[in-house]
């Protein structure tokens, strides 16, 4: 069963360079197939090139979709990473 969550990216740099690399590393820990949807494009959350190609900046709204045995955990951890951890790193 697919899980889905829409979140807002609020850290200063969005999901570029270092935050994107950290996100992909975190997503890769899960068996679930996870994708990011932004402005009608959907890419594999475990692909740094895919993620970078989206150009997600501060204030962007993205949807995380995950399917597989640990989909719930993947969605909650990745959403927390974007919404909490990245914001804390800005300060």
TrEMBL record:
Protein name: Phosphocarrier protein HPr
One Pfam family per UniProt: PTS-HPr
Keyword vocabulary terms for this entry: Cytoplasm, Phosphotransferase system
Highest classification ranks of the organism: Bacteria, Bacillati, Bacillota, Clostridia, Halanaerobiales
Species for this entry: Halanaerobium congolense
UniProt KW Cytoplasm keyword: yes
Keyword Cytoplasm belongs to the record: yes
HPr domain span: 1-90
Main location: cytoplasm
Domain of life: Bacteria
This protein's GO CC annotations: cytoplasm
Function of the protein: General (non sugar-specific) component of the phosphoenolpyruvate-dependent sugar phosphotransferase system (sugar PTS). This major carbohydrate active-transport system catalyzes the phosphorylation of incoming sugar substrates concomitantly with their translocation across the cell membrane. The phosphoryl group from phosphoenolpyruvate (PEP) is transferred to the phosphoryl carrier protein HPr by enzyme I. Phospho-HPr then transfers it to the PTS EIIA domain.
Subcellular location: Cytoplasm
InterPro entries: HPr (IPR050399), HPr-like (IPR000032), HPr-like_sf (IPR035895), PTS_HPr_His_P_site (IPR001020), PTS_HPr_Ser_P_site (IPR002114)
GO terms of biological process kind: phosphoenolpyruvate-dependent sugar phosphotransferase system
């Amino acid at each position: 069963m697919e899980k889905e969550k829409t979140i807002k990216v609020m850290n200063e740099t969005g999901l570029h360079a270092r935050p994107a690399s950290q996100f992909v590393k975190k997503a890769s820990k899960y068996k679930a197939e996870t994708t990011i949807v932004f402005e009608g494009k959907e890419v594999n959350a475990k692909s740094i090139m895919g993620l970078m190609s989206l150009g997600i900046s501060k204030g962007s709204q993205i949807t995380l979709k995950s399917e597989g045995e640990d989909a719930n955990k993947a969605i909650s951890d990745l959403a927390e990473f974007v919404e909490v951890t990245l914001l804390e790193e800005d300060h």
